[in-house]
Amino acid sequence: MSDKPILPGAGPIEPVNLREALEKRYLEYALSTIMHRALPDVRDGLKPVHRRILYAMRELRLNPDSAYKKCAKIVGEVMGNFHPHGDQAIYDALVRLAQDFAVRYPLVDGQGNFGNIDGDNAAAMRYTESRMTEVAIALLDGI
Question: Domain for residue 67, yes or no?
């Protein structure tokens, strides 16, 4: 065996059909994205962003018997510490956890306009407040 490292471009060049290569690579990427990001985890039914929101709320001690906190504070905590993506995506996920018409058991107790079943959007995060529900506390006991 040779001690020389194999450098990129040093091996044989294989002719590849560009269309087939792109189709294969796109399919692999799409499946990876779906399996790791888009589908909820089978263990608790939560996506990573939902899990991070609940964890941040637990860290902020937003228990069902505590006072509500502004959603902007929660979103900032999640974005700053756990989920480095856009604040609107995090807020949309938080709003969904509070909508009793969107989930069977709401995990977030929201105060303010969190949207309605007719499709009206929630108010801006600076106007809404939230805390965890008893169901969220029970779910987090396993973490």
Answer: yes
- Cα distances from 57 to residues 2, 39, 88, 92, in angstroms, run 55, 22, 17, 15
Residue 24 lies in a domain: no
d(CA 35, CA 39): 6
| 8-state DSSP, 34 | I
Average pLDDT over residues 15-37: 85
Q: Is the pTM for the entire model greater than 0.85?
A: no
Q: Is 127 a catalytic residue?
A: yes
Nearest to 107 by CA among 42, 67, 54: 54
Pick the catalytic residue: 26, 29, 105, 127? 127
Q: What is the domain extent for residue 102?
A: 48-140
What is the tally of structural domains in the chain? 1
Give the tens place of pLDDT for each residue, 112-137.
Answer: 999 999 989 999 999 999 999 999 99
- 8 assigned to some structural domain: no
